[in-house]
# Entry
Amino acid sequence: MLFLVALLPVLAALGIPLAFRLAGSADRRLLLAIAMAGLGLTLLLALLAAAGGWTGIIVWSGPLRLTAVLTPIAGAMAMLVPVIALPILAYAAFHEDEIGLGRLVAILLLFVAGMELLLIADDLLTLLIGWELVGVCSYLLIAHEWRHADNAASGLYAFLMTRFGDLGLFAAAMAAYAATGSFSYDSLSDVSGPLAFVVAFGLLLSAVSKSGQIPFSPWLFRAMAGPTSVSALLHAATMVAAGAYILIRLEPFLTTVPGVPETIVAIGLATALLGGLVATLQNHAKKLLAASTSAHYGLMFVAVGSGYPGIAFLHLVAHAAFKAVLFLAAGIAGERAGSYGQHLMGFARALPLVAVMTAIGALSLAGLPPLGGAWTKEAIVTAAEHGSLWVAAGVILAGALSAAYATRFQLSAFGLIERQEQEASKAKPGRAETGAVVALALLTLATSLVWVPSVREALGRALEIEPHRGEPCHTCPVDRRRRFGCPDWHSLGPPLSGDRSYGTVFGDGGLARPAGPDRADRHPPRDTLGSGSRGGGRSGDRCRRPADRR
Amino acid sequence: MALAISLMSGLLFLCALAWPADYKGRARQYYAWFLFLQGVSLGLFLTLDLLVFYVFFDLSLVGMYFLIGRWGHGDAEYAALKFFIYTLAGSLAILLAILGLVLANDTLTFDMRELIAAQPLQGVDVRSSLVLLGFLVGFAIKTPLVPFHTWLPLAHVEAPGPASAILAGVLLKMGTYGIVRIPFSMMRETFAAYALPLAIVALMSILWGAIVALGQTNLKRRIAYTSVNHMGYTVLGIAAAGAAIGGDAARTLALNGAITEMVAHGLITGALFLMAGSFWQRTGTYELSAYGGLARVAPKLMIGFFLAAFASFGLPALAGFVAEFQIFAGTFAIYPWLAAIGLIGILITAALFLSMLQKIFFGDLVDQRQGFADLNRTEVGFLALLLVLVVLIGIYPGWLLTMIETGSAFLPLQGTEG
# Structure
């Protein structure tokens, strides 16, 4: 049943050539209708599946079976992907060149299908299938304008980079099978010894390459050879998100393997800082955003590695919303300027509506309250602080860099001074393009709701990153403790202490607080991770281990 | 196993027969030799008698020799001769090994089932080692494994497209099928003792085949070397399955993977070579530098070629992945290092196929290819037949795996001590 969620976009993609043949011509409106119908139904199915607790299983033979299940976070991701993809595909249907447009939209739909498959996967085999499908679709999308051999070369580069990471996933699946005779996620907890290292670091390798972390970041830049809508989808909710997602999904297992959380944090932090630096220096509008993407996924890695997958997920959502806005806006500005050089842009007067919408995205990227990106970024600072003050300091620096390049992007691309001297195309965005930007900007605004404590609580409950208020630790379901740390508000991060308001971007003196549990406490008893030293007076009734109360 | 491979062979023969080729004015002989080869090949896969197996094995050489020599192009006769001498040497080794095996048995019989039950040669003494060596060398030439592969690229390049498809899709399988059927089944103790060296040779084939393929500038040579690579996967799976270590489940998985790979490789590489034949039919050259930007003029060919290439480098939801995943997962449980190193092959094949596709189809259209004709209706039809199966096996391989498992149930996996 659940596999329908992944099957539907495939059907929609197959419907495109069929519809063209029936209609006799390639029509943008027709394309839009098919894409909207496909994604809308996917969204609906994902909703139904999450509500109805659907699962799926396809047995090949023996241990080879495809299984699918929706954990709360997987369910949320499965809905997020079509929500983000809808405006992006609408934009694609009207913004991109006529030549090969049907192919572009069809492959974008396949891409969404691959992504959905890897989200619903409950075993490494299914994950690998979705993972590789996303990879190959990205190749086809980046090489979309194949008439220029350069684009194809960029596609190949990106594909080989990510496929190198896929080998890690292959290795992880093989090692899991060797250890347990099964590929399912559940059996991962039985893997131990050297094989656990192979599984964990294999997964990490594939996540790092997919999410464009160091040393795989360059492919994100080469991926900019694709059309704007491709970049937007690639960087917002699919492909790049897959790496962070799988770390979030398998975090309970990954943190049991010594050395893995530290590696995740180290890679994430290094990428966040270097990515931020590159973005600050970059003049190419899309490449600036690409660098910023890898930096922000670095921040998510830091959150996961510090033991807060819930926060990483919220940041993923916030990032997906604002990054999609910015990419689409960059596409509009690039079309008008005839190049992506920011020194040629400056369209605040020419395109006021788009400029305002972009500002929303840029401010969220910069981390200005009350936008969603601000809350999640701040939460990551606090999460990182539980590991080490240095990491927190690094995250703050990365945050400052993102504020800097967000400002620069906004002021140069949509600044008040139009710097273009020669008379170039006065391309104006069509209604669908503007509509897509507005829709995504509204979504970005919606992420601001995470500042409202009651919304946050509801969210925490729905995503099961919610504490059991008043339940002593030993009554918490064991698997939940393993999965999300000892249930505590801290799974959702600092601002959830609720009664305090956070005036500054980076939390109210988060640095002043004592650091979290000693590193020695971090594993193997996974429970200590979630229950950092935050939360003041409410600790008595909460799941708190004595070790944390020093 | 035999059923699955025979069905695949039959289908591939059908497509190869129907595929347009250059008959050189001798259409009757062309089809006669083709049908002869088909009969011989199916006989080889279906027989239960060692002697008949050997006869068919030799006759298949004859059929292919004439197809390459008469209807090939370029230096066809030299290529055919090299092919013939190489594999004939291999089959002599097999003949000696068969005699050694049969004479070691108490009663004189060539019945495969009885020989499997009797296990006439055991242990690792000189005699059984030599017999095993004879089988392995003979089949390794046919498969081909590095370092016995040098006849293959030459034969492929000079052979007409459909004959290449049969050579890669069916004749190479005789080698791996033979390994499973004879030494793997009839001499399991000896085979288990030498499984590791065999696996190492297979690994060399995987890497060598992939790396050399990457360096080729000739369309057909490139595909030919990927066959060396893929047959390396197959033998790796067989060797892992035959090793007397590791759990039964993992070894069954490796063997099933190897057999699936035989079927998948037959369909995929068959399709690739058929399309390569179409390139020759239209332009008379296999040099990659002579192509470029063909996506403009031959979109159908592009879709078919892309799909087959994706399948060949093991993209999920296509047949190659199902096979390779099983081989690697099974082998890793037995020889972790070999499987881990072998994974690199997956990456290189992706690089070599995609760079080839980009050269042929993307970029600017090369001038002398202006009038390049797309696939015609016959070609599209039979290509679709092969590729639909590739997709079907990739998405829902349950039926194929069941067929393979039923067939290989008699194989002595449970016999050796786990």
